[in-house]
Amino acid sequence: MLVAKLVRSTVAHGRIKSINIDEASKVPGVYRIVTSEDIVKIIPHPYYGPAFHDQPILAIGKVHYVGEPVAAVLASDPHVAEEAARLIVVDYEELPAVFDEVEAQKSKIVVHEQLKPAGTFPDLKHLHGVRDTNVALDFQLKRGDADKAFAEADHVFEHTFRTQQVLHVPLEPYVSIAETNGTSMTIHTASQSPSFVRLEIARLLGWPENRVRVRVPFLGGGFGGKLYIKLEALVAALSLIVLRPVKISLTMEEQFYTLTKHASTFRIKSAVSKDGKVTGRECEVWWNGGAYADIGPRITQKSGFTAPGPYDIDNVKIDSYALYTNLPPAGALRGFGIPQLVWAYESHTDLIARALGVDPLDFRRKNILRDGRPQATGTVVKDMGAEACLERAAQLINWNTPFERGKGTIKRGRGIAVGFKASISPTTSIAVVNVAADGSCTLFCGTVDMGQGSDTAMAQLVAEVLNIPAEMVHVVHSNTDITPYDMATLGSRSTFHMGLAVKLAAEDAKAKLEAMAKEVGLPPGSNVPIRELFERKYKMQAGTVVGTGSYIPPYTSPDQQRPVRERHAVLDGGCDRSGAGDRHRDRPHAYREDDQRRRRRPLDQPADRRDAIVRRGDHAARLHHHREDGVRGRSGHQCLVRRLQDPGHPRSAGLHDQRGRRCQPAQRPLRRQGRRRIRHLGGVAGHRQRSRRRYRRAHHLAADHAGKNLPRHPRRRERATRGLMMSTAKKTISFELNGRLVTADVAPHHTLVELLQNEFDLFGARESCAQGLCGCCTAVVNGKAVSGCLYLASFVDGATVQTVEGLSDGAKLDPVQEAFIEAGAFQCGFCTPGFILMTKQLLDAHPAPDDDQIRHYLAGNLCRCAAYPEIVRAVKVAASKRKNIAA
User: Fold this and answer.
1) pLDDT tens digits, 312-329
2) Which residue stretches of 156-287 are H helix?
3) To 5 degrees, how large is the angle CA 40–CA 65–CA 301?
């Protein structure tokens, strides 16, 4: 395999006069040096992009930004290739450059002489051949008469907000490998959109799709940066030129030359009546798309029409521009342009309230968009819940009570904001479920697992439909030769869109199994195991049942004759609040006519579960920390998830093994196998089950059972004999929860997290990885920490359960809580309750822990924001506080 190192432009805009490779070619070990002249011999039109075919595989004739690839050096040794790349000399005729998005709109400096729409999006085709402009897209929306509203307004407010570029920088940089025999090609790549990569590479090469295979393993983060084509076109071309496998792996620095989030300028103007009602709003947004469009035109449109905010405004005028500049290309990054706008229009809202001398919350209440009213596009919103979210946010931070802001160098702030997002809909997802003769299943779907736990979610959906253990479902990672089409893993769409396709495929397989049972003479409702069913059909263990499912959400195209219309799942709302130590977020979601498809997890959870349900806007995060939870779909109404008011409320408890004995650190080994972490039963976080379908004795009953040869658990016996059917009958349990006796009805498959959230509105324990690996779901049962996402709810019958909500007495925080606030030991705050509970347990066992003990006890908890130094410092501060209290 050859490794490629890139020679990059050193000027922002210029013509390439010459490329001198003489000295580089003399370096021992260099296999070949490739420029655009070599590329065009095998790919006559080597331009790619999702919206515009404007980006060359290697710069052709001109460079358009600093860092653009100009040449590639191939060698077996990456250090040899890197050394040779440094010896290549490129001579440029430097040209004037434009960097500011507002200036680019009217600048005489043109980045591209002609617009080249890709044809993927029909609404861009009219731009084909447009010349001498930096405006890639001018999206306009008008509703009502904004000019009249401003003329009649009692107050007019206008502000301009600017945001800068932001980088994705996932821990795994961009990397791709291509191998070819000249007639077919396999690409191994870190991509969120393997189906698109296959389509685009096939188009570039002029091949049918079946000659291109794209394989994607687990990703080390994506956040939107690994969508569409990044390195795949280049490695494909290089591999075809040399007919050998070629790999390109970027450094962290090179990511800065590949893709950014859009810098933006947002001018917002509002007409306000004397009673505080916003009667008109004018929005002008300039998006800095950099040198190549990428997906910028879609961001310009889909984010542009949300620019007025989640407010009921009759007269709206929006202009949203996608601009070319001589900066690195900009694309999607967590929110698809929404964070830039929300930060601006909510700051604008606060400034208006301050100028009018009214409470910011009251001003929002007066203008918030309510159900049954049209948004700026004319879409009538349903179940948006913005008003309820706003009220709940205000309640949780005690908005109407006095607030102590502090007098020292560290001050405290409190604010409230509400935002919403345009979802990616409609899109296509297809899934295939293969049921083998022994009852095991293989699921083929194109969703890419990059840490969000999609493999687990999809396996659970299949298992639920077929009533089999989730462990019997194998999910095949993206391989376009065998996994069917999926639009992409982006935009918080996967659990909803692909999840429904998977459910339909599993239901199709189940229907075929039921038809097989009828064929072999079994009456309807027979509980014959799958293995036995196949043996009756084929007289041996043989055969396969294949189920397929395709999901495209219903959609009504805009009707120019009917401006007020209904659409499916358009809006994704959110409310944010920030305060001292209780910075959180509530988020209602838009559900539509198919709300009856209820799941144990939100149907529209973010695709990237590394951020899980912790989506943080970049600019808002600089001002304050906030968190959000998903919403569980309910038939006929919208269920708003209520957040934990404080970062955590741990209670003291020791760590014990399965027989009730205290574990020493040496007895709790932690070992890693690939991406999975397997814990000893007496592990760091107490008894953590590895599978919700695999029975393990509840540890609060283990002491009674110690040393006894117990029979197999009856629920497992039942499952083994009943095949496709498993009892879902609920049972009533009673237990002590945070000091009070409670009862609840639980089904056999319900987890402790589901019990706490659904029955008692306690959201301190949150499901994230769904595998007991991250510690976000930590709760304490009979003094021992457990993974609530795996721990069955029925196991707490007769037990004592403590969650983070039960720590403080309502008036004073626990020392551990105070320590985490003082040390600033949280960013998004999603993992904080779990860390606080484990810190509490650590200090109970070791009042003065050293660094090794701290790391050991907290090894089972994951902070995706990497706030580990602050967390360790918080543990030490908490130890000091407890020591002072004891003294």
Assistant:
1) 999 999 999 999 999 999
2) 194-205, 232-242, 252-255
3) 95
Does residue 551 register a pLDDT over 60? Answer: yes
* Inter-residue contact 808 to 844 (CB < 8 Å): no
Q: How far apart are CA 404 and CA 579, in angstroms?
A: 10
Kindly write down the DSSP assignment for every residue of 744-790, as one continuous string. Answer: EEE-TT-BHHHHHHHHH---SS--SSSSS-S-TTEEEETTEEEETTT
Containing H/E element for 535? Answer: helix 530-538
Residue that has been written with the tokens 């075919």 in this structure: 53
Q: Report the alpha-carbon distance of residue 224 to residue 493 in Å, rounded.
A: 12
Distances (CA, A) of 739 to 643, 735, 803, 805: 20, 10, 10, 11
What is the 3-state composition of the chain as percent helix, strand, coil, each rounded to the nearest 5?
30, 25, 50
d(CA 783, CA 654): 6
d(CA 614, CA 594): 25
Q: Which of 180, 179, 292 is nearest to 230 (CA)?
A: 292
What are the helix and strand counts (H, E) for the chain? 23, 33
Q: Six-digit token pair at 751?
A: 């987890």
Peptide bond into 426 cis (omega under 30): yes
Token digits for 438? 């022994």
| C-alpha dihedral, 114 to 116 to 117 to 118, nearest 10° | -170
**In terms of C-beta density within 10 A (0-12 exposed, 13-18 middle, 19 or more buried), how is residue 253 classed?**
exposed
Please state the length of the chain: 887
Q: Round to whole Å and give the CA distance between 376 and 313.
A: 7
What's residue 410's pLDDT?
85
**CA 819 to each of CA 778, 859, 875: distance values in angstroms, whole numbers, following the listed order:** 19, 19, 7
- Contact in structure between 111 and 41 (CB atoms under 8 Å): no
What band does 556 get if pLDDT is binned at 50, 70 and 90? Answer: low
Q: Which of 576, 778, 555, 591 is nearest to 684 (CA)?
A: 778
What are the φ and ψ backbone dihedral angles of 561, each rounded to 5 degrees? -85, -10
* DSSP secondary structure, 596-648, as one string: T---SS-TT--S-TTTTT----HHHHHH----------BTTB--PPPPPSSS-
pLDDT at 728: 60
d(CA 803, CA 411): 29
Are the C-beta atoms of residues 630 and 587 closer than 8 Å to each other? yes
Read off φ and ψ for residue 513, nearest 5 degrees.
Answer: -65, -40
Rg (CA), the chain: 29
Angle at alpha carbon of residue 87, lines to 82 and 91, rounded to 5° = 125
Residues 717-722 have a mean pLDDT of 38
> Residue 304 phi/psi, 5° resolution?
-60, -40
DSSP-derived secondary structure for 83-104: HHHHH-EEEEEE------HHHH
The H or E element spanning position 142 is strand 135-143
- Of 806, 802, 838, 803, nearest to 820 by C-alpha is 838
Rama region for 276: left / alpha / beta (φ>0; ψ in -120 to 50; rest): left
Cβ-based neighbours of 390, under 8 Å, separated by 6 or more: 361, 364, 365, 368, 416, 418, 575
The tokens 């110690």 sit on which residue?
A: 706
Largest pairwise CA distance in the chain: 85
- Report the distance separating Cα 284 and Cα 282, nearest Å: 7
**Of 590, 589, 591, 593, which is closest to residue 554 (Cα–Cα)?**
593
pLDDT digits (tens, 9 = 90+) for 8-48: 999 999 999 999 999 999 999 999 999 999 999 999 999 99
- CA torsion sign, 600 to 606 to 609 to 610? negative
Rounded CA separation 846/439 (Å): 49
